[in-house]
Amino acid sequence: MNFRKTLVTTTALASFAMVGAAAAADYTIGITQNNVGVDSYQTTYEKAFIAAAEANDKVDAVVLDAGGDVARQIAQMEDLIQQNVDAIIIWPTNGQAVIPAVRKAHNAGIPVIVTNSNIAEEGFDFVRSFSGPDNVTQGARSAEIMCDKFKEMGIENEAQVVQISGQPGYTTAIERAGGFEDRLPEVCPNVTLVETQPGDWNREKSQQVMEAFLVKYDDIDGVYSGDDNMGVGALNAAKAADRAGDIIFVGATNFAVGYEAMGRGEYWGSIYQSPVDDAEAALQTAIDVLDGKDIPFLNYFDTPKITQDNMSEFDKPVF
Amino acid sequence: MAQSHLKAVGEILAKHGILVAFILFMIAFALLNPRFINSDNLLGVVRSSAILGVMAIGVTFVVVSGNLDLSVGSMMSFSTIVVLDLHDKLGPLLGIPAMFAMTMALGALIGFLVGYLKLNSLIVTLGMLSAIHGLTLTYSGGKNMDIADKDGTWFGFFGQGELLGVPVPILMFALLAAGLTLVLSKTPFGRKVYAVGGNGVAATFSGIPRARIVFYCYLISSFCVAMAGLIQASRSLGSQNTVGQGLELQVLAAVILGGASLLGGSGTIFKTVIGVLILGFIQNGLLLVGLEFYVQYIVTWVIIILAVWLDIAAKRGQLWSPIA
Amino acid sequence: MSAQAPVLELKDIVKTFPGVIALDHVSLDILPGEVHALMGENGAGKSTLMKVLGGIYQPDEGDILVAGEKTILRTPLEAKGKGIVFIHQELSLAEELSVAENIYMGELPRKSLGRVDWSKLFSDVDEILGRLNCNFNAQTIVGDLSIANQQMVEIARALTVEATTVIFDEPTASLTDAEKVVLFDIIEDLKSRGVGIVYISHRMEEIFKISDRISVLRDGEYRGTLKASDTNQDELTQLMIGRSLEHTRPDLSQSNGDVALEVKGLSCGKLFHDVSFKVHAGEVVGFYGLVGAGRTEVAETIFGMRNKSSGEIFLNGEKVEINSPADAIAHGISLVPEDRKGQGLVLGMNCRDNMTLPQIDDLTVSGLTAPQSEQEIFKKYRDQLEIKTPNWKQTVGNLSGGNQQKIVIGKWLSMHPNLLIVDEPTRGIDVGSKSEIHNLIRELAGQGYAIIVISSEMPEILSVSDKIVAMFHGEIVHTFTSSNVTEDKLVQAISGIYEPENAA
Amino acid sequence: MKNTNLAKRLQDSAIWIFIALELAFFGIAGEFLSLSDGNFLAPDNMLLLIKQTVPLGIIALGMTIIMINGNIDLSVGPIFALCAIVMLDSMTWPIFAGLGDGVIVIAWALAILVGVVLGAINGFIVWKTGVDAFIVTLGSMLGYRGLVFLYNGEQPTYHLNWTLVDIAESAPLGIPLPILIFAGCILFTWWLTKRTVHGRNAFAIGDNRTAAVNAGIRVGPHMVWNYVLIGLLVAISSATFYSASGSVNPNDGMLYELWIITAVVLGGTKLTGGRGSIIGTVGGVIAIQLMRKGLGHIGADTAMVNLVIGSILIVVLYLDRQLNRKGEEELNS
């Protein structure tokens, strides 16, 4: 055994700088993210989270990525529980499938904070807090943006709208679609939502779904997509069929590509949501929970509307 | 008498069965939804199957030479991400050839492993499927790859442009198909690919450098994948790391549907193109008829099994297999 | 051997393949406790007859009587059920499984729940192996056994069933002398227990050592049965060869060409060693020997399919290095392989493409293939070799064996090689057109080609070759010239018992 | 003959040597690179490792027998998803309303029924049409995925029954239930391949099909039983996993077939049939999961994991080829 000891001491100094751990970090916080490789929002979220953790010398962060696979996320939860971290932050790949794993952490006395996309109701009593955007409000706000634009154009009585939703089973997708579908009839009763198809947060798939819509429906007045990444995919399809001019595109989670499209006047509006706020809010919530502070169960951070009119007030998203 | 009769019918069916099936499908869908046969729709379908088609042409070479290639899916993601990245770093004129070189280097590696080291092509390309996916993620750091200034570049020409009224992807698809048909059926190299796939030992006995032929087939396949990556990247001027995921099995389905045998030695590019179009039009037809996209999976299952079964039945002269 | 009722009887068996009458009213009877040898040239119908007996082929006419009762044998399994066991020359064993599982394949003793009764299986098999005094046991993995031992496993399989007839097809081809002794003891043991044995072989001295009666087949016809005790090698050879030799030998033009090929001290691992010979332009050198003598391996090494371990090859006096068939072809060597289907043809391709495959690179017009010039080559050799095929588009797989053979010959002749090697030129060719091929070979020699012919049919070698190289177990025993060769010297040479008195 | 025995023994134990190397590497590397204080080689971390190999492991056992038989099955992914969907959804069917928690047993039974039926369909098509198993199961992979989507569109199938979750997470005798089920499947398939006539015939057919046919083994039904067996094992794996998670997405099980074939080949089973071992496959599955977990432990991201596993597969393939290279008799074709 002494072989390992000598090995440990000689290289401990070398590794010291790399891990950047302070003398004795009070908390080790583990995070299992949804799918870092899927889009820039998530990649920027991870960078912001790591930066925030390193900046705060009270915290050691174990950063894992489930790569979109439920089985792997459950395995990562078990690993974090087994390594008895002080708190676990989870960005669920599937709001329902992770509930038993969250319960296991709860039973092991490890507080669980959900970030970005909430888990289903049944899991609420195993979770200390949800930190992220209020997706239902976001959906409603997008409906309002679209309806105001239709009124401005005077077509709010015969407009037809299609929706490209996020990954099925993903809470954010369900909440945003729900928010949009509930709010739209309230503000623009005569606008009809003709069809909804999932784009799985994937730009290429959204482009194909939009192409199918364009073939199926001769006049489309508005497209609501779960996020700008999918929205731009739909925009590309419309531009290829050169019908982009007479379609109002409204999305959510304003990406850089969305912001530029708005700058070019092709994309009408979106919801401004910064992954950096998302990451920092999640870390701060975890620290507050460990410090014993009481924080609201639903800890939303604000996500304002952004349209071509007021885009100058916001600086271009960094993802 | 019955058996030779079945064999005759089988022969015709095996030779042109795919064409017959293709025409029947088109008629059926046209009747169900007239919008199906309007020129925009037809053109749209061919344009969207161009990417799969270009890759299928490359894989046809590999299958005719008696091997398999499961790595084309992740290799296509790799080429798409790389060309977008290099477009901003080196500019399109340098970026595109650099991407072709990098993608064909991967093809050369596989060609070396399967051709010269004679390793099993299914397992090698299965390993490369995962390794290249890892390579792509490392290269892009997990981020989407988007061209910074989308309006200021002519790069969109390949995916979105039109020439003489025909969308560029279709032209590239047609040009590549014509060119490689010439190579496969009208050049000594093509004849050798059929020989190596049909009977490797006899080919070597006839002085054909079997390892080199297999190596070139994988090189051609990677060239086609690079072409597909170019079209895909240019189509949306941005892409995710997983854009090519799952394409390898769709490509294989199209090649098999076209009539190429997995044992090697048979199959043509024309038939593969028909296989690709069948897949494309079924998906489109079902959509227009109002069925969900996944019904296409079930239809594809049925016609793959039927197409290959009839082909084998014709060759052996009996419908049911002789296995006791 | 008293006139007991025969264990097995064949009456007027006829079997035809497209264009070939393989068996022409052959009758044969096997008595219990008798070793009945069956002799005949290659292509005389021996293996076809045995495949009929073994249930692999169905006879077109004639009956098979097992213990006097007419039976139909549809599959090898049915034949085995009737007590007829066939030990093939090529072994059909599962190399990954144990000896026991191979012997009882398909009939493993069972316990409840479909479990294998291993104890019973191993004890039964060990008992049989004991009787054959094998040096391995029931649990050895077949893949680890030598060829000879694997053959013992096949023989052991025969003893698992109450066999009334056991057919051996060239069993001693790859056995050492010691292993042969063990085999003959087993045959004696089977004989003593009243089993009828059919023994197919080329080797005269084995035949005379163990067989009671000898039947001879020639060109698919039954030539008669002799008692081993009152006949001798010459009478048997005469019966086998039939037609007198003189008139079959064409006038051999004296070869005066220079040395096209010279091989010095060539060897390749265990396959053959220290092989040296010369081939002059316009001369046919015949290689004669038994299976496993190394003749094909020598040809494959010259052609670059195998890497030589030592020795040199000279073409037209100039030393050459040949590491691949492509090198050999570049040096103008052509090899018509013994295994047409496996090594000679791409069955899925059409006739023309197969024929022009080796020279496809030269038949191009601006990079593309030139169909017309290919067509010409195909037509030329189709007519010259009289290949019966509707048109060039016909896939080779659909042709008869003889025509396939001719396509391969045409393929290599069209290369205009300066050294042509033909391995078993007339195997699978119908008797009628055999002499056609022989004349063609002689004609080519006349035109100055240097030719090597490998054959295991004595009349063919004698009628075609200017020089005959006899090989046994990887070595050249002796080289005869057409003037000083006789049958029995040749037979002795290939059986390794030839003492060159003072012959040239 | 001696070197072939050595080569064979080396081959059989190759995968376990590889696992030992992995353990050593991650054990030591883990000390420095990993942020968590837990020791990688701690017993309960290893137990967790085994538990995480269960889903792919159980299916790999069935795939081993299929490949020994000379066939292959690409459709295990969608079957895995379909069994789970039927299991979870059947618990909400009104006709079982009265049973309360008793419905769990029925749900498992239905899941197994689905697996067996889908396996049998594959088997019959391969048998009766004579089409190559690769193409048949490539087709059924697409077809069964279509059935998964047909069942519930793109929406996940979701039913959280806490008793079911408690059963799935229970650990009788201190060992998690999934590991016990996995052990049971290993025992059964090992017993099948080593002790039963059916198992030994699988080797015979895979190694020399003509010899097997001549010996009177009925190859057709034998194949169908093997496909039924893999269907059963996929159903067991699916029921075990989804009982603990309660929700299944239509895209679940994606690429499972590729990882499972990789594990079986790493374990020493030949693709062309005739040779393979259940124990080797268990080694193959553990080796891959250990690689994933180890790389995760030392902070490597998904990119590195994919890169490493893909390359290791090719290296092992090359070594395997060197090990059983025949003598110089081989023609250099």
TrEMBL record, chain A:
Domain of life of the organism encoding this protein: Bacteria
Entries under InterPro entries matching the protein: Peripla_BP_I, SBP_2_dom
Statement: the UniProt record of this protein carries the keyword rRNA-binding: no
Keyword Signal belongs to the record: yes
Signal sequence range: 1-24
Gene Ontology MF annotations: carbohydrate binding
Identification of the protein by name: ABC transporter periplasmic-binding protein YphF
Taxonomic lineage from the root: Bacteria, Pseudomonadati, Pseudomonadota, Alphaproteobacteria, Hyphomicrobiales
From TrEMBL, chain D:
GO CC field: plasma membrane
CDD domains documented for this protein: TM_PBP1_transp_AraH_like (cd06579)
Superkingdom of the organism of origin: Bacteria
Entry keyword Iron: no
Keyword terms: Cell inner membrane, Cell membrane, Membrane, Transmembrane, Transmembrane helix, Transport
Subcellular location(s) per record: Cell membrane
MF terms (GO), sorted A to Z: transmembrane transporter activity
Regions crossing the membrane: 12-33, 53-72, 79-99, 105-127, 134-153, 173-192, 224-242, 294-319
A matching Pfam family: BPD_transp_2
Membrane-protein topology: Multi-pass membrane protein
Family matches, as InterPro entries: ABC_transp_permease
UniProt keyword Flavoprotein present: no
PANTHER family in UniProt: ABC TRANSPORTER PERMEASE PROTEIN YPHD-RELATED, ABC TRANSPORTER PERMEASE PROTEIN YPHD-RELATED-RELATED
Protein name, entry field: Ribose transport system permease protein RbsC
Organism field: Maritalea myrionectae
